[in-house]
Design a protein that fits this description.
The complex is a heterodimer of chains A (107) and B (146). With 107 residues, chain A is α/β, with parallel strands linked by helices. Chain A has one domain: Transcription Regulator spoIIAA (2-Layer Sandwich), CATH 3.30.750.24. Chain A contains 3 helices and 5 strands, in the order E-E-H-E-H-E-H-E. Chain A starts with a strand and ends in a 5-residue tail after the last strand. In chain B, a hairpin with a 3-residue loop joins strand 4 and strand 5. The N and C termini of chain B lie far apart (32 Å). The longest helix of chain B is centred in the first third of the chain and has 22 residues. In chain B, helix 1 runs antiparallel to helix 2 and helix 2 packs antiparallel against helix 4. At the A-B interface, helix 1, helix 2 and helix 3 of A face helix 1, helix 2 and helix 4 of B.
């Protein structure tokens, strides 16, 4: 799992690459929290375009990021979700509080 | 019920083996021509079962995890994940959504995902002896794409 991020105009974008499972989750949570705390963004965008797999550990990662942004009074969006990660987040009902944008059909 | 094909393997409860286990199962299941969505569901369910053994069965030790995969009737994947760890006191409690005894990186959704992504899920556990999870998923026949 590789995590990169950019910060511009109050928006923190975090890019995920690889597979997000229990093996990768603890480190991912730590890195996301560090970046949110360092930038205090108005909005955080989780970009899953290069994420090839997610299990329920990914739910914990998204929920953690959501709670952190909630404490800061900011928003959290998840974008470019592939079908498999989308099914996992949907099964957990994460859609109720995080806005999803699916992977665009044409690339 | 006919067993058309099967394999068994055993590995240590190291978290690096989560991706190994789900990849091996996906490769084996490929012989009955599942869709990408079916393969994704199976990989996710395997990841959940194996992670449960790694996190909960062997919290402070490294133990053995056995994986058996069978193809039944030529169209159903049956996956058995067995550990020899501490076991689950209350299986129905453990299967409830959001219930977890794990750390901050756990969501308590493992069994819920296994249940919703597979057709059948059986959990047998004996405290002090270990846990066995058996899951089945039927692969739908597809018309060949021209």
């Amino acid at each position: 799992m590789i995590i990169r991020s950019t910060f511009e105009d109050g928006r923190l974008t975090i890019f995920f690459e690889g597979e997000l499972d229990h093996h990768a989750a603890r480190d991912a949570i730590r890195q996301i929290e560090e970046r949110i705390d360092a930038t205090c963004p108005r909005e955080t965008v989780l970009d899953f375009k290069r994420l090839t797999f997610m299990d329920s550990s990914g739910i914990a990662v998204v929920v953690k990021a959501y709670k952190r942004m909630n404490q800061l009074g900011g928003k959290l969006n998840a974008i470019n979700l592939g079908p498999q990660p989308r099914r996992v987040l949907r099964a957990a009902g994460v859609e109720r509080f995080v806005r999803f944008n699916a992977m665009p059909k044409e690339v | 019920m006919t067993v058309t094909n099967s394999f068994k393997m055993e590995f240590l409860s190291r978290s690096a083996n989560e991706s190994f286990a789900r990849t091996v199962v996906a490769c084996f299941a490929a012989q009955i021509d599942p869709t990408l969505e079916e393969i994704g569901d199976i990989k996710t369910a395997v990841s959940e079962a194996v992670t449960n053994s790694i996190v909960h069965a062997y919290p402070d030790t490294i133990g053995r995890i056995r994986l058996r995969v069978r193809i039944l009737n030529g169209d159903t994947v049956e996956i058995t994940v067995k550990d020899y760890g501490c076991g689950i006191e209350d299986v129905s409690k453990a299967r409830e959504p959001m219930f977890t005894t794990g750390g901050e990186e756990r969501s308590g959704m493992g069994f819920t995902i296994m249940e919703s992504f597979m057709d059948k899920l059986t959990v047998r556990s004996k405290p002090g002896k270990g846990t066995t999870v058996v899951m089945r998923r039927k692969i739908m026949r597809r018309e060949s794409v021209k």
